[in-house]
Design a protein that fits this description.
116 residues; alpha+beta; 3-stranded antiparallel β-sheet
Length: 116
Amino acid sequence: MGADVSERNLLNYVFLNAGAHQFIVDWPDRAQRLVAEFRADYHRRPLDGDLQRLVEQLLTQSSVFAQYWQQQTVLHREGGERRFNHSQRGILTYRQTTLIVAMQPDCKLVCLLAND
């Protein structure tokens, strides 16, 4: 049986799963940036009911999300280094690249390539 849809949502994981704080290196900075990137996507579809429900859920369940959301920072997705603290392998470092489909800018593919 697959994971619940909410468990597959990056915002839910980052803000509602306590393990994310230890797993994501530089969690406060990464979480703040994630909200700003999400706001850029949200801005393109402000009447989308699913997005509105997601924002409302996060605002009520995460005071940190609410704080970052109220800052109204908007950033476009960038690549760069991403680090994770794996429980058995230690710090893992990846290079993130985001690909945006020219004819469909709402479609994005985020790739993580391990740094050697």
